[in-house]
DNA sequence: TACTGATAGTCAGCATACTGATCAATATCC
DNA sequence: GGATATTGATCAGTATGCTGACTATCAGTA
């Protein structure tokens, strides 16, 4: 029988497990307390000021129920703000605070370092190839999870 | 600035997210209720009858605190048994029940189908290459997470 | 305008995963 | 042999992620 440890699903979990551990270690070494999800959300809010939570979720492929808690914690840390939208009273408009902007700026080297470390076993060429194959596999499976990547609405 | 969605860490999370969704869907279609973690644990117990929880955790690279809960649920579903060890009274010896054995046998096609689906965007050759690169990256990063893969003790 | 359906956000509940602590039992070392 | 260190398992606490349900609101239409 095929070794369980050699299945694609298992390898996916292991790589993700290492990626998260490396991210948290690098960020903590740099003196910050931010998870991968929180970083992705914060960076995406900064790039799209005033966007609502559902759009944010789509842009980074998270479930909207997860985003609620992530934003809670970003707000609680003083890095983001959640305001009622004037156009649609159901929606919340998200903004990065000055403190959030400062954090994003200072944390970038740690984030980039983490990306290098998680690929440290591969040559530059192999790293590129791994990313290409992951992108291709993900594109084909995008609609298979509850939280597919979506473009921002017009 | 580099697009956040194009970082290795993000791709890792997305691929893992899709892999889990596909696994759960295929297994549910086959009439079973088992998570990827539960499946991996059950299959590994079957292949190593009587092993303790720490060894199990090392064999599939899970944190031992996570394993406690996973075994709780396997026991509660009647698929595994947890007995006090006679050699070491701190340890628990794990066994698969007849029901667990039956489940493993019947669930295999769904698990294999899930592995194919999560790679459906890639050619056979590309799928092999993706797995090779993941294995290589994982091997280099094995010690970077709290739950590295470990061989069984002698 | 009243009805219907869709959408934004939240919540309860469950299952990973992690950190750090604790307890009981075993190993090791002097 | 007895102090010390280590180890197996669990627990409390926190943060993803998911399903399914619910409320409030919006949009389209008869």
TrEMBL record, chains A, B:
Q: Which SMART domains match?
A: HTH_MARR
Supply one GO BP term: response to stress
- Cited Gene3D superfamilies: Winged helix-like DNA-binding domain superfamily/Winged helix DNA-binding domain
Gene Ontology molecular function: DNA-binding transcription factor activity
Q: Where is the HTH marR-type domain?
A: 8-139
What is the name listed in the Swiss-Prot or TrEMBL entry for this protein? Answer: Transcriptional regulator
Highest classification ranks of the organism: Bacteria, Pseudomonadati, Pseudomonadota, Alphaproteobacteria, Hyphomicrobiales
């Amino acid at each position: 029988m095929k070794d369980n440890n050699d299945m694609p699903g298992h390898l996916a979990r292991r790589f993700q497990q290492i990626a998260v551990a490396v991210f948290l270690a690098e960020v903590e070494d740099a003196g910050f307390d931010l998870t991968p999800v929180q970083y992705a959300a914060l960076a995406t809010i900064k790039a799209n000021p005033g966007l609502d939570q559902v759009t944010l979720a789509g842009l980074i492929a998270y479930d909207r129920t997860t985003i609620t808690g992530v934003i809670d914690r970003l707000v609680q840390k003083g890095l983001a703000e959640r305001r009622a939208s004037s156009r649609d009273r159901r929606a919340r408009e998200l903004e990065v605070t000055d403190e959030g902007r400062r954090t994003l700026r200072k944390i970038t080297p740690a984030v980039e370092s983490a990306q290098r470390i998680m690929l440290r076993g591969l040559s530059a060429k192999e790293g590129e190839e791994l990313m290409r194959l992951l992108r291709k596999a993900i594109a084909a499976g995008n609609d298979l999870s509850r939280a597919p990547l979506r473009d921002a609405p017009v």
